[in-house]
């Protein structure tokens, strides 16, 4: 009888361990969390036990994302606006547990050739992707707990020289550079900074980039350059984000992890 009770108690305890995620009790922020990679990453981080603050410019998409995520708080805003970032971090501060995971994911992209590039296009792209990322991380610094993980969303576009994508690629190359520098600057606080570089990922942004009528043809052209023979899924990128967010990556710092189906590797 006593053995049976001990076995039952052990099974219950083991089940509790299995249910607990890698980020149990942690606080995370995901920018651009309404759709695509951001939403999938927020869902995964919450599944691992974190409470996730998601921000983005479209309130309807954010509201839908919160329903999908579960343990989440939506704070609508634009990362290129410092006041919106202040509101985001005020909400995190109010929770009173600091910040353990920051996924600086929000970005904007459009195809514009060199001869067509305007000051407005350059300022918008760098204003969101580079300047916005910088202040997303800078304003989080007072909240970052020891052992926190900062993950920057770079891009394989910074490597492959795609025509008409020069401004976007340059903005993402800067993000990759930030990861190296900030990893060095924050290591003494026990904060790890890394980047990810997704390749062709099938998100709603594909349609936004080329339009509904050309989306399928554009996907096919992207797949042609991927050794694995398909586009990636947002949840596959989210799995890498969760790895970098957790203690499983405790010896990974300043790295850039490619999630590209071998596009830039083979």
Task: Give a topology summary.
Layout: H1 2-19, E1 27-31, H2 36-47, E2 51-55, H3 59-69, E3 72-74, H4 82-95, E4 99-104, H5 119-138, E5 144-153, H6 157-160, H7 166-186, E6 192-198, H8 205-210, H9 215-223, H10 234-245, E7 256-259
Parallel strand pairs: 1-2, 1-4, 2-3, 4-5, 5-6, 6-7
Helix pairs in contact: 2-10, 5-7
Tags for this model:
single chain, about 270 residues, alpha/beta, 7 strands, about 50% helix, about 15% strand, SDR_fam
Structure description:
With 266 residues, the protein is of the alpha/beta class. It has a single domain (23-259), classed as NAD(P)-binding Rossmann-like Domain (Rossmann fold, 3-Layer(aba) Sandwich), CATH 3.40.50.720. It is built from ten helices and seven strands. It has helices at 2-19, 36-47, 59-69, 82-95, 119-138, 157-160, 166-186, 205-210, 215-223, 234-245, and strands spanning 27-31, 51-55, 72-74, 99-104, 144-153, 192-198, 256-259. The chain has a seven-stranded parallel beta sheet, with helices on both faces. The chain starts with a helix and ends in a 7-residue tail after the last strand. Mean pLDDT is 93; it is low at 5-18.
